[in-house]
Amino acid sequence: MRHLFGWACIFTMLPIFIICVFVAGKESQAIKGLSTILDEKIPIESVDLAQNSYVYDHEGRLISEITSNQQNRIYVKYENIPEIVKRAYLISEDQRFFDHIGFDAAGMFRAVLINAKSESVEQGGSTITQQLARNVYLNHEQSYNRKLSELLYSYQLEKSFTKEQIFEYYLNAIYFANGQYGIGTAADYYFNKQIHELHLAELIFISAVPNNPTQYDPVKNYKATKVRQERLLQTLYEFGAITAEERETATKFPIKLSIKKEVDIQPDYVTYVHHELKQLVAAKEGLKDHNQINTRVNNILSQGVIIYTALESERQNKLVQSINSYIQSDDIQGAAAVINHQSHQIVALAGGTNYNKFEFNRAFQAYRQPGSSIKPLLDYAPYIDVTGATTKSRINAGRFCSGGYCPKNYSGRNYGMVSLETALKYSYNTAAVRMLHEIGIEKGFSYLAPFNFAKISKQDYHLPAAIGGMMYGISPLELTNAYTTFGNNGIYYENHAIVKVTDQTGKTLYEWDENPIRVWKETTNKQMRSLLSAVVSSGTGKKAAMNKRYIGGKTGTSNDYHDLWFAGLTDQYTGVVWIGKDQPANIRSVYDRGSHLLIWKEMMK
């Protein structure tokens, strides 16, 4: 009897609640009306339903769907929802929806009788508005406290929105089993079609699910779902929503599920896109706190945004294939990045062999000793820029010592006076260190400042840095970014994967600004391009040579063959490859095969 008593209390309170709402407005100004109190305690300005966001490559192909709060949802506007779907829910769930104020006293009275008879809370008599309130603001607990809360939230929803808006929210909020929310999502997931493409039979089939998503799960309980579909078709016929012929045809129509798999490819690149999105939002909104940035980005993604990227999918596929093909040892890793230096966009990125999304991404998270690949940036370009030297200018590649630091050339030999071209294409260490020493360490490092290398600090301001001896080093993506300067006449542009972020209507929400910085003179850049070309044509980078109008680059090897690098560019693209072990160790065998050069060659074709 306590269930009957509880429901009787609720039912008795309804008229009192309604009277209070309307009478409160006429009370003294000194006393707040019930409606005002509800506005303060339960302010409802919008119904925020998490929507899917999408990531596209540069040709407009979908590469990743992003769901928020584990709710897969494709939002569908009211006018785009088929009328028969609306009729089905109105008839089966809330026939007086367009007449009541959020709750239906007659429906609740029927629930009182049924629950009293069963001695349990089996029916709630909930309207569509109440179901929306429960799905968005409350929970599915079967209690009278929750039921009363439903009434209050429903009243506020009816005050704030039109019936059509509430119905739209409802049809996008309800659960369709298997992590799918909303009628549009159900169409996409179960039939791999848009909702307007579905047959009447398919529309009513998925409409059968929300009544009891567990019992009517189309994947696990297909037969039960089909039985309920036929009941709904009969009900629609009885209410005159469909003809006898339509009911018969829909009943016999073969329902063939075509479960759609979530699109989530190119994990190396997509992982970086998520990282860059945080940078973009933080830069545009002036956010610095890590938790604040994460919260804001999650909120943006839940609004259903579209992220357009510069990804060249074919190049990305070739890069990943090459990394996995040329590096087959379990404990050896590789990473790479390719940038279109003409458009200033990151077009491909590899985070490691057999990479999985959101794993440690070596392309932008691994900082390693750059070896001789730093020489063009820290030694040669600054030296030429300061002294006016050319490729034919002479530099001493003989013995060098300063303050107890005495670097040696790879061969152990001293070469005396050689041209800058010879010194770079054979990577003479003593010549590079002598250049940095002559112009001054501070001056040399000033040329690296525009590149914003994250791990380079004052601790690295010493002569060993001239040949890559640094505390932490640099990442493959950082080195790629820096080398793009050689492709832009000595001007550095920040390079990005994200082209723009828009809302569902196409309105641009976020995009990067360009802030070009001149790093060295055009004349210096011309000399550097010639030097880098010589490395590939007749120096240490010969294995990277291919039929291109221009190709130049620089190899790099850290002490004891711990890190192998090749950084280079063509007329349009700049790319860097790194190979090494996560725990640095000798990989001389890989060096001998020239795998880093061969991977670079493949990804730059």
TrEMBL record:
<dbReference type="InterPro" id="IPR023346">
    <property type="entry name" value="Lysozyme-like_dom_sf"/>
</dbReference>
<dbReference type="GO" id="GO:0016757">
    <property type="term" value="F:glycosyltransferase activity"/>
</dbReference>
<keyword id="KW-0328">Glycosyltransferase</keyword>
<keyword id="KW-0121">Carboxypeptidase</keyword>
<dbReference type="InterPro" id="IPR036950">
    <property type="entry name" value="PBP_transglycosylase"/>
</dbReference>
<dbReference type="InterPro" id="IPR001460">
    <property type="entry name" value="PCN-bd_Tpept"/>
</dbReference>
<keyword id="KW-1133">Transmembrane helix</keyword>
<keyword id="KW-0472">Membrane</keyword>
<keyword id="KW-0378">Hydrolase</keyword>
<feature type="transmembrane region" description="Helical">
    <location>
        <begin position="7"/>
        <end position="25"/>
    </location>
</feature>
<dbReference type="Pfam" id="PF00905">
    <property type="entry name" value="Transpeptidase"/>
</dbReference>
<keyword id="KW-0573">Peptidoglycan synthesis</keyword>
<dbReference type="InterPro" id="IPR001264">
    <property type="entry name" value="Glyco_trans_51"/>
</dbReference>
<dbReference type="Pfam" id="PF00912">
    <property type="entry name" value="Transgly"/>
</dbReference>
<keyword id="KW-0808">Transferase</keyword>
<feature type="domain" description="Penicillin-binding protein transpeptidase">
    <location>
        <begin position="334"/>
        <end position="572"/>
    </location>
</feature>
<keyword id="KW-0645">Protease</keyword>
<keyword id="KW-0133">Cell shape</keyword>
<dbReference type="InterPro" id="IPR012338">
    <property type="entry name" value="Beta-lactam/transpept-like"/>
</dbReference>
<keyword id="KW-0961">Cell wall biogenesis/degradation</keyword>
<dbReference type="InterPro" id="IPR050396">
    <property type="entry name" value="Glycosyltr_51/Transpeptidase"/>
</dbReference>
<feature type="domain" description="Glycosyl transferase family 51">
    <location>
        <begin position="60"/>
        <end position="235"/>
    </location>
</feature>
<protein>
    <submittedName>
        <fullName>Transglycosylase domain-containing protein</fullName>
        <ecNumber>2.4.-.-</ecNumber>
    </submittedName>
</protein>
<keyword id="KW-1003">Cell membrane</keyword>
<keyword id="KW-0812">Transmembrane</keyword>
<keyword id="KW-0511">Multifunctional enzyme</keyword>
